[in-house]
Amino acid sequence: MKSARATVGAAALAVAMAGGLTIVSAPPAAAQVGIDLWVREAPPPPRQEVIPPPPEPGHVWVGGHWAWHDRWDWVEGHYAAPPHPRAHWVPGHWRTGPDGRHLWVEGHWR
């Protein structure tokens, strides 16, 4: 005697072969969550960086910046490969709000 699972499986296969079933594959979903971190203390002036030659042609220098981790820490600059040939890097910056607090605006490719 056939099991119910085998019968259902055979029936589904028959429906699929007859064109009555469409199987759709979707790419995995991605979510991005951002949290605005406002800092009362102004960041120090940017450091002067010695920019080395690029590791490969076409790489773009992404300058360093100050980051707040319960104190100011310098994040060193680095080279990055653009996502496409016409992309250009828009540097991140600290924005001062009307109440005097400071918000980091991430750099991004455009």
Give keywords:
110 residues; alpha+beta; three-stranded antiparallel sheet; two-stranded antiparallel ribbon; globular; disordered N terminus
Averaged pLDDT = 82
Q: In DSSP terms, counting alpha (H) and pi (I) runs of 4 or more, how many helices?
A: 1
Order of helices and strands: HEEEEEEEEE
Outline: globular
Query: Beta-strand percentage?
Result: 25-35%
Count every beta strand, where a strand is a DSSP E run of 2 or more residues: 9
- For the report, how would you describe the main beta sheet? 3 strands, antiparallel
Across the major sheet, the strand order is 1-8-7
Give Rg in angstroms: 26 Å
| Distance between the first and last residues' Cα | 64 Å
Secondary-structure content class: alpha+beta
Low-confidence stretches: 2-8, 21-26
Query: Helicity level, as a percent range?
Result: 10-25%
What's the short story on this structure?
By secondary structure, this protein is of the alpha+beta class.
Word description of this protein:
The protein has 110 residues and is α+β, with helices and mostly antiparallel strands. The protein is 13% helix and 25% strand. It contains one helix and nine strands. The protein has one helix at 4-17, and strands at residues 38-39, 60-62, 65-68, 72-75, 78-80, 89-90, 93-96, 102-105, 108-109. The strands form four sheets. Strands 1-8-7 form a three-stranded antiparallel beta sheet, with no helix packed on it. A two-stranded antiparallel sheet has the order 2-5. Strand 7 and strand 8 (102-105) form a beta hairpin. The chain is globular, with a radius of gyration of 26 Å. It starts with a helix and ends with a strand. The relative contact order is 0.17.
